[in-house]
Structure formats: C-alpha cells, structure tokens
C-alpha cells in the first residue's frame, strides 16, 4: 500500500518533465522517427547540459548557504550524483554477462564527460564567444589532474 502511494507521488512529480521530454525529443526507436537519430542525440545532450547546469547551480547555492566550499560539494555530491547511475548501468550489464559492455560504459562515460563536458564549452569560448582567447582554469586540482595524466602518457 505504501509503495503504491509513493509511486503515485513520484509519477505526479515527474509527469511534467516526462511530458516536456516526450514533446521535444523524437523517439527514434519508432519507424516514423528512425532517420532523426542524430536530432535525438543532440536534443538529449542539450537537455543533459541544461539539467547539469541547474544541478551545479543548486549544489553551489546549497553549499554557499551551509558554508561548505565548492570543491567539497563538487567532489561529494556532483561526482557521486553523476557516477552512481553509470555504476548501476555497468552492474546491470555485467550481471547479464556483458562484461565488455560494462567496461566500455565506465570508460566511455568518463571520456565523453572530459571531451564534451569540458571541450565543447572551452571550444565555444575560444572560437565563438571571444575568438583567439584562452581559457583560464581557476581550479588548481584540475591543473594537477591534467599534469599527472600528461606525465603518464
């Protein structure tokens, strides 16, 4: 009985979001929309970018309100919030006997995050917004991470 009520509440809270996504992203698994797979990918990526922006903004506001530094909020909440779904997906496919798919999901999502999550905004900044500019990295930890990776290669 309690599960039924919680499912109804969850449905009521998520319905507007599901409706907006249904209206804005073509379902390319249906024959009518098959040829729009790239549009589906681009729109899905744009929605993820929008959701990510709001997630970071909300975590920043919560951290500021509670007096927790941005670095700590990013390491704990944002990193965990983005890694847990990938971990769950990898576990599910690994249990189905698809270990190679689990590994590719783990590696692929991180590569996508680095190349698209950092590359696209930085590329837009240096090519379109302020042509010929450089990107100033304010976080010392990001520079250290890149230096360590560069030394290993």
TrEMBL record:
A molecular-function term among this protein's GO annotations: symporter activity
Sodium/calcium exchanger membrane region domain location: 38-134
Domain of life: Eukaryota
Gene3D superfamilies linked to this entry: NCX, central ion-binding region
Alphabetized UniProt keyword annotations: Antiport, Calcium, Calcium transport, Ion transport, Membrane, Potassium, Potassium transport, Signal, Sodium, Sodium transport, Symport, Transmembrane, Transmembrane helix, Transport
Residues passing through the membrane, by range: 12-29, 36-59, 71-94
GO BP of this protein: intracellular calcium ion homeostasis; sensory perception of smell
Claim: Ion transport is one of the keywords in the record: yes
Mode of membrane association: Multi-pass membrane protein
Reactions catalysed according to its record: Ca(2+)(out) + K(+)(out) + 4 Na(+)(in) = Ca(2+)(in) + K(+)(in) + 4 Na(+)(out)
Residues in the signal sequence: none
Designated name of the protein: NCKX4 protein
Gene giving rise to this polypeptide: Slc24a4
């Amino acid at each position: 009985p309690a599960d039924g009520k919680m499912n109804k509440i969850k449905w009521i809270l998520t319905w507007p979001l599901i409706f907006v996504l249904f209206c804005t992203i073509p379902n390319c698994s249906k024959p009518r929309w098959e040829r729009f797979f790239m549009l589906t990918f681009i729109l899905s990526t744009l929605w993820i970018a929008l959701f990510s922006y709001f997630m970071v903004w909300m975590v920043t506001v919560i951290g500021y309100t509670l007096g927790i530094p941005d670095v700590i909020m990013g390491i704990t909440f944002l990193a965990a919030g983005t890694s847990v779904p990938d971990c769950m997906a990898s576990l599910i496919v690994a249990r189905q006997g698809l270990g190679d798919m689990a590994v590719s999901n783990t590696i692929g999502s991180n590569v996508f995050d680095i190349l698209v999550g950092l590359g696209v905004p930085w590329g837009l900044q240096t090519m379109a917004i302020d042509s010929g500019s450089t990107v100033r990295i304010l976080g010392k930890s990001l520079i250290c991470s890149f230096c360590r990776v560069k030394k290993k290669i």
